[in-house]
Design brief:
TIM Barrel; alpha/beta; 42% helix; globular
């Protein structure tokens, strides 16, 4: 049997939750053959730490930098200039996570500001010829409208919408990343999306330290749990885990390189 190779397209491994056992967590991921990890960073300080760390093994680790929707109200002009410079660093592979989050934010003016920063970051990613990673919570229609109007190379992180909406994103060339939710008993949408969309647009992620998959649900999530997610995706699609892992790996390479 061929050795499996897994991808975690969205991991917050610079988070404080991993301070106590950082090296052990990395070793568990390596032992589980999670060979490609996108480190998501949400502050300048976190991005700098991630870049320094990723130089240990650039083939395994990539870094994404973004201004998270909940943080836009605190961004000054100086902050934006620092972010622009950071985003242009060749060692920053993706812009993200960016997007819209209306779940916590009810103020129409702040929601408007989220949309403005989402557009600014998409346009910056396009200018830099880099892909972007999109967070969308309770804002799927606005997210779609912006991604259609400002079309670029992106993926829907931790997608939780309907299969019908997923098809619309895929028609625009956007990828759909599924995480631990696909393993949950009540996760009808994630399972339907996994079963329905073109396999060439599916990706796997943990969103660790959040959303650990069954049978680890309720625990701190980490990249080594990716095989549970890929195994469930394979089961839903009626293919082998080996095949599913190969498809995801191929999709990730195509996504990063910008090839159709």
């Amino acid at each position: 049997m061929k050795e499996l190779h897994y991808l975690d397209s969205h991991a917050h491994i610079m988070a404080e939750e991993y301070q106590e056992d950082f090296e052990e967590m990395l070793k568990r991921a390596e032992d589980a053959h999670v060979d490609r990890i996108m480190i998501i960073t949400l502050s300048h300080e976190e991005t700098m730490r991630a870049l320094a760390f990723a130089r240990r093994d650039p083939g395994r680790y990539k870094v994404a930098a973004g201004i998270f929707p909940e943080d836009v109200k605190n961004v000054s002009d100086e902050d934006w200039q620092v972010f622009e410079k950071t985003a242009a660093d060749p060692e920053v592979t993706c812009i993200g996570e960016i997007g819209l989050d209306y779940y916590w934010e009810k103020d129409p003016e702040i929601r408007k500001l989220q949309r403005e920063y989402f557009i600014r970051q998409i346009e910056l990613a396009k200018k830099l010829n880099k892909p972007f990673l999109v967070h969308s919570r309770d804002a799927i229609q606005d997210t779609y409208d912006i991604m259609k109007a400002h079309h670029g190379r992106g993926l829907m992180h931790c997608y939780s919408g309907t299969k019908e909406m997923a098809r619309e994103f895929v028609k625009l060339g956007y990828y759909i990343a599924l995480g631990g939710a696909v393993t949950f008993k009540n996760a009808r949408h994630s399972v339907e999306v996994c079963a329905d969309i073109d396999e060439n647009y599916l990706l796997s992620e943990t969103d660790c330290p959040y959303m650990a998959p069954v049978p680890k649900r309720g625990k701190r999530n980490e990249p080594s749990y990716i095989p549970y997610i890929v195994n469930k995706m394979a089961e839903v699609r009626g293919v082998s885990e080996e095949y599913m892992a190969e498809v995801i790996d191929r999709n990730w390479t195509r996504f990063l390189e910008g090839k159709e």
